[in-house]
Amino acid sequence: MTRPVRPARVLGGTALAVILAMLSSGQTLTGQLEGEQPGCAKKAVRPDQASPTRSSAVAPRSWTPVGGETMAVMDLKAESVSASDSAVISSLLRGELVKTGRFKLVEKNQMDKVLAEQAFQQTGCTSQDCAVKLGKMLNVQLMVVGEFGKLMGQSFTNVRVVNVETGEVVYADKAKGSSADEMEYSIGGMARRIAGLEEAPAQSVPAPAKPATRGK
Fold first, then answer.
1. Residue-wise pLDDT tens digits, 114-141
2. Is 101 buried (19+), middle (13-18) or exposed (0-12) by CB count in 10 A?
3. Per CATH, the architecture of 69-194 is what?
4. Full-model pTM
């Protein structure tokens, strides 16, 4: 005769005996912890009822600096902002790149001197061909070019890293902010991503908008 099994006493709703019994029988705890009844199918959630989630994945990158590369940062092209504001952001980017300790940056004064000797006008130089030409003049391996602009109260900085030897854009990034502090923080993060010290978060796909409901 089979000896009856004495039911486990549940203390506080989370008795260890109940959990062990469920695990040994192959049942999952997720549904039970969420209040589902055993044997009941989980209610499906329509796509338009799903709440948006923030992805923790990181965007893949095909290039990472090995460290010690020579680099020059051109003054960013001003778009809907003053040239002085663009120069400040360019200087800020140079300083943040130096802080990473991954590159050997050419000083702005030295860069201007070399370009003046070559009678080269750097204003508006944002194309790959122009970046390669400047990079060869400055004898650097990497050139950073881009734009700084403003739209609807937001400031945007778009940069591209060009390999001078191959002429290829090996990395592109952006930073944005609605205040000076936000821009400084954002530029710092972008510099660390260029240096390969941080990964860019993957772009999450927003949840579909809920359809409008008609009143009864």
1. 888 877 766 657 678 888 988 999 999 9
2. exposed
3. 3-Layer(aba) Sandwich (3.40)
4. 0.64
